[in-house]
Design brief:
Layout: E1 9-15, E2 21-26, H1 27-39, E3 44-48, E4 51-56, H2 58-64, E5 69-75, H3 80-84, E6 91-95, E7 98-99, H4 106-112, E8 119-126, E9 129-136, E10 138-142
Antiparallel strand pairs: 1-2, 3-10, 4-5, 5-6, 6-7, 6-8, 8-9
């Protein structure tokens, strides 16, 4: 709460061993999540493409002479990424022309800002070649 008594965040983790250090979600994110929860009949729906990945930082990219981006470790069977032809060891470098890097929140940030059902254009690096693949963003839901 702020000094006016308004809620500005919701605690999500508190460490009593760390001198009561706490972490909170900003209230605007909580409001959006609650609106989505109510709209969808009690479910949280999140956009996803269905890959497990590891970010390749600028330093790693320079050391290994590969592009910066999201290194695909696994593609979930039957996911939008699988349907589009993305394979393990691809590196996703751009989504709709936006560079995928840790500086801009990585793959998860770009995907979470995309609406479910939208088609996105992924630029991937595979075996030294750059390809463009179209993926329809799916949804994952939880109750």
């Amino acid at each position: 709460m702020n000094s006016s008594g308004q809620v500005v965040g919701v605690n999500v983790a508190i460490s009593s061993e760390g001198q009561n250090i706490g972490f909170a979600l900003p209230i605007n994110i909580v409001k959006n999540l609650l609106a989505e929860f109510n709209r969808s009949g009690g479910k949280f729906e999140r956009p996803y493409i269905g890959v497990r990945y590891r970010m390749i930082t600028r330093d790693l990219a320079l050391n290994y002479e590969i592009p910066e981006g999201a290194y695909v470790q696994e593609v979930i069977e039957g996911s939008p990424a699988d349907d589009a032809g993305i394979v393990s060891e691809d590196i996703i470098t751009k989504i709709d022309g936006k560079k995928v890097s840790e500086d801009n929140g990585g793959l998860v940030k770009i995907i979470s800002d995309t609406k479910i059902g939208n088609k996105i254009s992924l630029e991937i690096w595979r075996d030294g070649d750059t390809k463009t693949i179209s993926v329809t963003v799916g949804q994952t839901s939880g109750e």
